[in-house]
Amino acid sequence: MTAAKNPIDFLWFIPTAGDGIYLGSNELTRAPDHRYLREIASAVDRLGYSGVLLPTGVACEESFVTAAALATHTESLKFLVAIRPGTASPAYYARLATALDRVSDGRLLLNIVVGGSPSELAGDGIFLPHDERYDHAEEFFTVWEDLLSKGQADLNGKHIRAKNARLGFRPTQWPRPPLYFGGSSDAAIEFAAGRVDKYLTWGEPPAQAKEKIDAVRAAAARKGRELSFGIRLHFIVRETDEEAWAAADRLISRLSDETIRETQARFATESDSVGQRRMAALHNGRRDKLEVSPNLWAGVGLVRAGAGTALVGSPETVAARLREYQQIGIETVIGSGYPHLEEAYRIAELLFPKLGLGKAAKNENERSEFGDSAVFAGGGHSGGFRAASGS
């Protein structure tokens, strides 16, 4: 199966809230220990992923600090880090972003997170209604962008005031690092159309994702702008479709119906996110109808907020589904899988060759000698052995 002419830009996920084997269970969980996160970052850097997403929220390690720590242990990996308007001033975020971009030698990407949980936002001192949060964000990034591109900013806005704000250093990426953003409401789409570089959608079925992408593209065109597009998806890839579906079932095998009901009720009452409602509507809290589109499985969303769908199948099957997303304009994938260290290897070893990505795309056998192919024999004293001629 040939790879697409324009290979997907494939990022991975750093689980700064913790990791595990089973969703909705305390069995075989992993704390977000820095050494573990460093293992994941080093692995995906070596395997050929272009970058990593670091999530944000009360339950997560702070993304700027974590990215700065991981940058020193990686070479080419980019870090998609969250800016949350209102949790600090635009001038302070300008200094943070510039410092991290310089420390990482221009490997910073920025993810605008306006927030979808009024209760969590209240804890950060933000009490704005849903749509007004985007008006606030527009003023916030007016100041922020002026600082990074010009070194100074002034604004007397409804939500943001800045008088003779200054920035002492330029970012490595000029005039600023790229801005990513995901939001499904009308207000979010209008904000994205005028401000960001890459619009992200959660993993909705291709037809639904296309409707949203078309709406964003049209809104951007009205402002004289063009955006690129990405998607946030989980992956369950195995050598066969049957093995992959069995792994999906295993992932939620410890998840009780009571936990599903409690989690979905909390999402409904504590979140005003339109995107979250769209994710929940895919499964409606039911575990008997989770394949919401060919090979698109909504089981993750039974208990996880935000991105709740996974592509499930063999490398050939999942590559075909990804090409369907490419056809509607998706250029970037931000993937994840449980647990994230092992699944990063599975994706790189099984799926990347079908997509023309990663180190495996070179089809090199580093154990061979003098051009002879070698067969892995378990790593004994003699290592591998040379394959018979013609085998």
From TrEMBL:
UniProt xrefs under InterPro entries: Alkanesulphonate_mOase_FMN-dep (IPR019911), Luciferase-like_dom (IPR011251), Luciferase-like_sf (IPR036661), SsuD_RutA_monooxygenase (IPR050172)
Highest taxon listed in the record's lineage: Bacteria
Matches recorded under CDD domains: Alkanesulfonate_monoxygenase (cd01094)
Enzyme class: oxidoreductase
Entry function: Catalyzes the desulfonation of aliphatic sulfonates.
NCBIfam families the UniProt entry points to: alk_sulf_monoox, PRK00719.1
PANTHER family in the record: ALKANESULFONATE MONOOXYGENASE (PTHR42847), ALKANESULFONATE MONOOXYGENASE-RELATED (PTHR42847:SF4)
Protein name: Alkanesulfonate monooxygenase
Species of provenance: Sinorhizobium numidicum
Source species taxonomy: Bacteria, Pseudomonadati, Pseudomonadota, Alphaproteobacteria, Hyphomicrobiales
